[in-house]
Amino acid sequence: MNENGRNEVKKVVGDSLENEVKKFANEFPYWIKYLANKILSGNEISQNDIDETYLYLLEDLGITEKTTRTEITLSGLHDNERDYYSNLMLSELENVEGVNALLEGQSIEFSPNLTIIYGSNGSGKSGYTRLLKNVFYSKSKEKILSNIYSTDIVKPVNANFIFKSEGNEISVSYNNNDHSIFEQFSVFDGKSAVKHIESKNEFEFKPAGLNFFGKFADALSHVEKKLNNEVTIKQQGTNINNLLMLFDGNSEVTEAIQAINTDKGFENLSKIASYTEKNTKEKESVQKKYEELQIASTKKDQEIRNLNTIKKLLLQVKQSVEKFNQYFSNEMFEKANQAIIECLEKEEIAKNEGVENFKTDNLNGIGTSEWKNFILSAEKFALLQENGNSHYPKNEDHCLFCQQKLSEPAQKLIINYRKFIESVSEKKAAELQNKLNKAKKLYDDLDFNLFPPNNILTNWLIENYPIELEIIKHSIEKQQILAEKICSDIQNKVVNEKVGVLIETNIFETIEIELEKSLTILNTGNQFKELERLRNSIINLEHKEKLSLHFPKFENYFNMQVWLNKASKANFPKQKITLKEKELSSKYFSENYVSIFNNECQKLNGDFGIEINRTSTAGKSYRQLRLKGKNPNTILSEGEQKVIATADFLAEMKLSEINRGIIFDDPVTSLDDKRKNEIATRLVEEAELRQVIIFTHDLVFVSNLLSKCEQQEAEFLCHWIENIDGKNPGAIYLNNAPSYEKDYKTSGKAQNYLNEAKKSNPQQREEKIKNGFAALRTSYEAQVVFGLFKGVVQRFNERVSIESLRKVYFTTELIDELLESYALCCRFMEGHSHSDKYSYKKPTIEDLNNEIKRFDEIKKKISSCKKNKS
Hints:
Layout: H1 15-26, H2 30-40, H3 47-60, E1 89-97, E2 107-109, E3 114-118, H4 125-135, E4 158-165, E5 168-173, E6 185-188, H5 190-198, E7 201-202, H6 208-235, H7 240-244, H8 252-258, H9 265-271, H10 277-296, H11 298-327, H12 330-354, H13 369-385, H14 408-421, H15 424-444, H16 456-464, H17 466-492, H18 506-522, H19 526-567, H20 574-603, E8 611-617, E9 620-626, H21 638-654, E10 661-665, H22 673-686, E11 691-696, H23 699-712, E12 716-724, E13 728-733, H24 748-759, H25 762-788, H26 812-828, H27 845-869
Parallel strand pairs: 3-11, 3-12, 6-10, 10-11
Antiparallel strand pairs: 1-2, 1-4, 4-5, 7-9, 8-9, 12-13
Helix pairs in contact: 2-3, 2-6, 3-6, 5-21, 6-20, 8-9, 8-19, 10-19, 11-18, 12-15, 15-17, 16-17, 20-21, 22-23, 24-25, 24-27, 25-26, 25-27, 26-27
């Protein structure tokens, strides 16, 4: 047992696990081992560590020269870089502000073992639970809402948490919610239960040796990302195609360039990279021979050049025709019509979505493009006033035109203008209009003048293929007319049916065949072969000269390829890490987890045959509950699901090395009385190991908890939370709840509050007095059960004590007096609505003292009735 009265949750990390982790890390090259040692030392991996690891990686890859290295001896396992507290308990929650509609000025004290906060639905339990879920570990964190019914200025969320550890008090604010102390408590509620049942969950709480793998894989990913970024940058530099563009034509040089990445490619390129004076003279000699031979074959050569020009021009026209055919098919026309229809539909939707809301008799043209452009321009101009930092308008802003201060309606109108312009339909309509504009421009830009007058190709076709030329021109004219119609339809957004017109391209193929025949005949002379040889020699020498001038570029390119090739050999063993984590997790952790989970299921009478499906990825382990291969929520009842989820949560907490407290929000919803009793038994048992805090509206469950505490002689606190007048949830009455009936048979509780009130300052005094009246009210309730009715029927007791009926006796006068006193207690305790007559009066010490005396007198009268009866 520790100083807080509960068994200590001890941390166990086996030496064998540590040795296996260190042995695993020791097998890697230096750069990986360096990173592993940083993690094993318990240090948080910084960017500087990533950069250092990266430099060692480059050295191990042979990209950079190795530096002097310090020998690495792997450190022993460290739990975590964060500091956690031992013997920790949550002592008090106070000064809660800005959370839902919770009443401010309240505080909750917590027992070292079990604390119960009881209240009906709507009493404010969920507000407190939501606050706790936001600071403590939870699978279902929720956004904290402000009081939507309050007209006051919304306060920011705040609360003060008071912890105790080793005899010291630690106060931590909600705004310091990244404090490590908050990681030592966990919250379980209905939404968390769903996550436990339906989702694949990471094993959050594992021995430090297993947590190593996830951090290790994550750190390696950062190094890999750094390497990939540099690879991307280098790949975006000069490539082989850029270098080849320096050379026009093919040669020995271009062949060597294309082979630069082969084994001896760069070496061979280096050998031909020099350009000497001898090469210059050789080029002059070859050039002279080429010119002499060229003169001799000028006439024939001229004819060949003309035909090659015709061939080239014909090919260009053919390509243009093929391009035209793509745009004048029936399918293309159908797409254009569909685009027009869709645009009209979206414009109509955008118009109906809001433009009618802005129409006024004072302005014309609302909803037009001019109106929209006016709003967009005003928006840009407004951003200039604030340097683009915030949206116009804000409070105190003035009109951009008349400089008059904007009224609230004017501000809302401008904001509504912006929302309308930014609406999805408006944007979609604009996008479709943009597509139509592009389509129109595409047809506008088509150049149908493929056969201009006095053009070389036109004249040649007129002379040699006049019929074919007219056929082609006629089809082009049809396409040009269609293009004008398409543009008109897009411009006016109208849909007309059109029939596609395609130009036959086989005419061009016939002409090309005849051209090739003519060129073959002309090229059979040997002088052309010699001219080609001389020309190739000139090109090769020119390329050689250009290579010598640009060789540094090729050298840089080659070095970059060497770097990339070495970098590609980098091995990031993430799969190996995942497999090792899975192996050790199964050996040292997950099997134990399964055993603990099954044990929890048995304790909760929830042995339904649930299996835990375990997977690993990126150095992390996950689990998913399965029943006959399916999610349990598809087979089990809602209550059975709650039991299984609770077992999974308790198993998770049991293996946590840092958890010191668990919080439950209505853990028995949808459970029958038998299940409630089983859950109560298990949680009271758990409260001997760690703090257990339970929020619940279920009186049967509260009774079960208190009964178990009584049987186990376990310490506990039970508070009452209430919604005052249905408007102020979160009112806390400490050590006061309907289930304390046996402790309220006398006025002792109320007397204790009276004594405390006498010693308190005015502000605390009023709170103590109100709690005294609340206690006194409960004492009256207990008198009804145990005094008037002699315990014949007790809450949560299945047996009715029939024999006690003989002792029951009371008078009408006694009942009237009891009811009057009970009503007075209710007025003073803030537990019920007050009439106007009493709403202004605050209870005093004298009021409480008088009512305690009255209670004692009534109790005596009840006892005397018993005596008279006997």
